[in-house]
Specification:
Strand content: under 5%
Helix content: over 70%
Oligomer: single chain
Shape: globular
Length: about 90
């Protein structure tokens, strides 16, 4: 069962870094329009979109929704692992 917990942790960590890379790509001109940026956007945007709907940008240009999304991802992963531990142990 430890392998399952490690796999969940690894997948969350990979997705976490994908979000970070996608955020950093917004600072580079035309980076999101590259083929890598488009693929990454198709993977990350469906998760970020609900957060962007509810959290408006600060001062009209600073988007903090990815930070909230990353925190929510961490809490969800921790909760999932805790639930699985209770069910399987």
């Amino acid at each position: 069962m430890e392998i399952v917990f490690q796999a969940i942790g690894a997948l969350v960590q990979i997705y976490y870094w994908m979000i970070i890379i996608y955020i950093l790509m917004s600072w580079l001109p035309n980076a999101r329009e590259s083929s890598f940026g488009e693929i990454l956007g198709k993977i990350v945007e469906p998760y970020l979109a609900p957060f962007r709907r509810f959290i408006p940008p600060i001062f009209g240009m600073i988007d903090i929704s990815p930070i909230v999304a990353i925190i929510a991802l961490r809490y969800a992963a921790t909760g999932l692992i805790a639930i699985l531990e209770k069910l399987l142990m």
